[in-house]
Amino acid sequence: MAETARAIVIGGGIGGLAAAAALHRKGWAVTVLERAPALDPVGAAISLAPNALRALDVLGIGEEIRDLAAWQGDGGLRTPGGRWLSRSDAEAAAARFGGPLVLLPRATLVERLAALLPPGAVRTGTSATLADPGDRDRPARVTAGGEEREADLVVGADGVNSRVRRALFPAHPGPVYAGFTTWRLLIPVPGTEFAPHETWGRGRIWGTQPLKDGRVYAYAAARVPAGERAADDEKAELLRRYGDWHHPVPAVLAAARPEDVLRHDVHHLARPLPAYHAGRTALLGDAAHAMPPTLGQGGNQAVEDAVVLAHHSGDLSAYTADRLPRTTAVARQSVRVARLNMAGNRAVVAVRNTVVAALSQAGPALLLRGFDGIADWRPPYASGRQHAGES
User: Fold this and answer.
1) What is the pLDDT of residues 343-355, one digit of tens each?
2) What is the DSSP letter of 293?
């Protein structure tokens, strides 16, 4: 009987857990090493577009996640004063891309992915270091918990500041500051009704989205120097920057406590990696292609990576060939969108808003067009039944 192939996944975030689940379904013996003491995801919520949901179909949980879809009715782009620049709706998005856009707490997705793994597969509180990426003739080696482990495959899913990436590509310059910081909240806002929206100001954006569980996910971004933090607290900073914006922004801020607000500077890989693998070691998610969150595709691309990696697990060159061009294109588009929605020059903002409004009158809403070629992705080798309504 052939020996079961062994995989070690370094990083227990969404991409790492999805990769572990996909490899487990392919018959691999998988161990996930996560340095944090628990699987507590960074960030409040995640939006999953149809491309990621089709990848989750491969893992068998796509329908379960689709049931959490909350976006209904009209939504779109607004100005800080409340004027609509562009309108769209959930039905139009589903018709255009063959499925819904789903917004859910990151913790929920992490929980569902972890449940796909056998007991004991995830080891938290375990910092891991790639000792040897391996090659055709020898296994990869990982040092963790004071001992060395061998594996037929190591997956570096350890985020934007990936140590696995630095070990594989020490000459790569690594992540750079994207020029803006973000804030996120996931809170109940009783008695507040609103249409889902993203609002573009001058060097600032705000988004407010309802979740199916009744809570509200709000996010904001602003052009500030790297490392800057509020002198008092981040709720007060949000009030200073967004307190006079349109409804429901003041209501969301009134309902928030300072400890509800998460703040993180945004870093991305401005220079693409030459490959997403070396030897028996592969990179995925932010470790491979960290991008600005302006298209909401960071986690989505990580889930795509996971199922593609499992498919090509015996040929990592094919994995790189499959994923590097696509993710590079998505990352570059995310940078372009960031330049547009984070524009700080008053004249540029006025032109931007005029053009967005005119384009929206001429055809499908701008937000939907931005997902063309992204949200319609399908894993060509996926097996199992398709999502209802797809052909």
Assistant:
1) 999 999 999 999 8
2) G
Write out the two tokens for 58: 């491969």
Question: Among positive and negative, which fits the CA dihedral 155, 161, 167, 171?
Answer: positive
Tokens for 177?
């500051």
Spatial distance between the Cα atoms of 83 and 75, rounded to a whole number of angstroms: 12
What DSSP letter does each residue of 245-284 carry, written as one string? SSTTHHHHHHH--GGG-EEEEEEE-SS--S-SEETTEEE-
User: pLDDT tens digits for 148-172?
Assistant: 999 999 999 999 999 999 999 999 9
pLDDT digits (tens, 9 = 90+) for 277-336: 999 999 999 999 999 999 999 999 999 999 999 999 999 999 999 999 999 999 999 999
Give, in order, the Cα–Cα distances in Å from 112 to each of 59, 66, 117, 156, 244: 10, 13, 10, 21, 38
* Cα distance between residue 140 and residue 313, in whole Å: 14
